[in-house]
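Example is below:
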Amino acid sequence: MALTEQQIALGVARFLEDYPAARREVDELDETLAQSIGMELEELRQLHALELMGKAARAQGVDSTAFMVEFALDTPEERAQFLAELEEAHRRAIGL
C-alpha cells in the first residue's frame, strides 16, 4: 500500500499551503544550489519539502506517513481506509 506520485505531490502542495514558513524555505532554494548538487530545482524543492514534512510530523509526535496522508487524501474515510490497509499490510509482513 503506497500513495501515488500524484497523491504525494498533492500532499506536499497542501502542506506548503498550510505551513507558510516551510513554503518560504522551499521557495528560497535556487537553481544555483540545485546545479551544485547535480539535481533539478523542482526535485530539490520536492525533497526538501518532504524533509520539512517529516520534521513537522516529529514535532507534533505524529508518524510521518500518517502526517502525509492527512494532506494527500481528501476525506477522513479515505485516510482511515488507507491507514487501516497499511497497518494490515505491516501485520502480514511480520506474520501476525
Notes: The helical segments are 5-18, 20-28, 31-36, 41-59, 64-72, 76-93. The chain has one domain: 5-93.
